[in-house]
């Protein structure tokens, strides 16, 4: 069995490793010179840069729930939330541990992926060092490219604005915002990190967000009076600023868009069986297997979820079927399952959240994958920690990364929610520590 893997970020590395464990012949293509995907920090800004790493970035989740089940972070790392370089170092060590490099073609860009039969794919690759094109065939294909195409809001006049427009993907430091009037748009983690950082240097920030609407809660942020939050929508942009729905107008030097990302697969042929519309990729059985051509799978689409554990679960789900240890449902049955999921969550009314899981749905998704393929699900304690972190993050985004966690068993964990940061290797128990069951 030949398997091709497109992309060598966390999901691609996990796919390579698990294909090797299945005894499959696997080759992976990575268009950069190193593994890691978005964790492979590159401080240059440009259309070919796919890293979202910015100055001072720290993870939103703790290391114990940002690892694969067969490889842990270095025990000498005592903090729970990590800097980006430590996460990238984990993937470098994972790659070394399982000898994955010999399966990876670096500086190779996938140009086209098209089916040539029900169970075979033709893949055209460009060697970026020699400018030569190569063609291979593969029985199965894992698409593991992540998301890096900025989603731009469809607001009248955006292209007419004569100041600077930057998407959060290209945010690296606060220097460009010094003494500037900034309009920041966004409600996710990137917008929160940006507003906290920019607040220290900008002349004024108008932050337009829907946090109360999208997350059902308000944030506790300690910001200067230079930052003003608005829930009023923007009606249109002009050459010098923005007009709001209430008729007010403000001038800006910079528009910062922390508006998320779009799903794009420019290398997939029109007969690949996959369609993308309004942040919705379909038809995917259990959000990963191409229902039209089930010899292809896309790993990592669901968001607001446990990334690394979910990648591993999705990959093992696919391999259970690809190894013929379990038989896939028919195309009709898979399409019916997808339709039922859409009706249940009303995705047809809100396509841009088709792959959103969140605190309410992510555990059900993992368990559904596991039960359907008869494989082990993500441990309950990992799910509980995710829920706990996300809850505390919205209670106080500026301090939640100072909390320390310790897993006790498959169900229980300890959290030190004080602001004290221990430097000793051994986890210290404080009076205000909570045991969550």
UniProtKB/TrEMBL annotation:
Keywords in alphabetical order: FAD, Flavoprotein, Monooxygenase, NADP, Oxidoreductase
Top-level taxon of origin: Eukaryota
Keyword Cell division set for record: no
Enzyme Commission designation: 1.-.-.-
Membrane spanning stretches: none
Gene3D superfamilies referenced in this protein's UniProt entry, alphabetically: FAD/NAD(P)-binding domain
Cofactor: FAD
InterPro entries noted in UniProt: FAD/NAD-bd_sf, Flavin_mOase, Flavin_mOase-like, FMO-like
Endoplasmic reticulum listed as a keyword: no
Gene Ontology terms for molecular function: flavin adenine dinucleotide binding; N,N-dimethylaniline monooxygenase activity; NADP binding
UniProt record similarity statement: Belongs to the FMO family.
Protein name: Flavin-containing monooxygenase
Lineage, top ranks: Eukaryota, Metazoa, Ecdysozoa, Arthropoda, Hexapoda
């Amino acid at each position: 069995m030949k398997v091709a893997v497109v992309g060598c970020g966390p999901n691609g590395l996990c796919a390579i490793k698990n294909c090797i464990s299945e005894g499959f012949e696997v080759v992976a293509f990575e268009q950069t010179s190193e593994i890691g995907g978005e964790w492979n920090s590159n401080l240059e800004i440009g259309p070919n840069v796919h890293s979202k790493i910015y100055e001072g970035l720290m993870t939103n989740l703790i290391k114990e729930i940002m690892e694969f089940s067969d490889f842990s972070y270095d025990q000498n790392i005592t903090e729970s939330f990590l800097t980006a370089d430590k996460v990238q170092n984990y993937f470098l060590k994972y790659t070394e541990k399982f000898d994955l490099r010999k399966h990876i073609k670096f500086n190779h860009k996938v140009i086209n992926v098209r089916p040539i039969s029900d169970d075979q794919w033709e893949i055209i690759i460009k060697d970026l060092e020699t400018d030569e094109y190569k063609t291979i065939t593969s029985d199965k294909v894992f698409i593991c490219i992540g998301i890096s195409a900025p989603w731009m809001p469809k607001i009248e006049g955006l292209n007419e604005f004569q100041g600077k427009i930057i998407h959060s993907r290209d945010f690296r430091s606060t220097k460009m915002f010094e003494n500037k009037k900034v309009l920041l748009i966004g409600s996710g983690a990137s917008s929160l990190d940006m507003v906290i950082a920019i607040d220290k240097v900008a002349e004024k920030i108008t932050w337009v967000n829907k946090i109360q609407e999208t997350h059902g809660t308000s944030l506790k942020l300690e910001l200067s009076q230079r930052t003003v939050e608005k829930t009023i929508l923007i009606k249109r942009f002009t050459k010098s600023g923005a007009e709001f729905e209430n008729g007010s107008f403000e001038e800006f030097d910079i528009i910062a868009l922390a508006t998320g990302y779009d799903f794009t697969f420019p290398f997939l042929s029109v007969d690949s069986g996959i369609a993308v519309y309004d942040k919705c990729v379909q038809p995917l059985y259990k959000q990963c297997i191409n229902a039209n051509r089930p010899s292809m799978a896309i790993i990592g689409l669901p968001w607001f979820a446990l990334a690394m554990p979910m990648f591993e679960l999705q990959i093992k789900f696919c391999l259970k079927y690809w190894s013929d240890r379990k038989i896939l449902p028919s195309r009709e049955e898979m399409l019916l399952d997808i339709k039922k999921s859409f009706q249940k969550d009303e995705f047809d009314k809100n396509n841009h959240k088709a792959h959103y899981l969140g605190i309410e749905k992510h555990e059900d998704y993992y368990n559904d994958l596991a039960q359907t393929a008869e494989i082990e699900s993500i441990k309950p304690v990992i799910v509980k920690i995710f829920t706990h972190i996300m809850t505390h993050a919205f209670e106080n985004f500026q301090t939640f990364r100072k909390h320390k966690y310790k897993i006790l068993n498959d169900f229980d964990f300890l959290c030190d929610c004080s602001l004290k940061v221990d430097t000793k290797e051994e986890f210290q128990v404080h009076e205000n520590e909570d045991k969550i069951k």
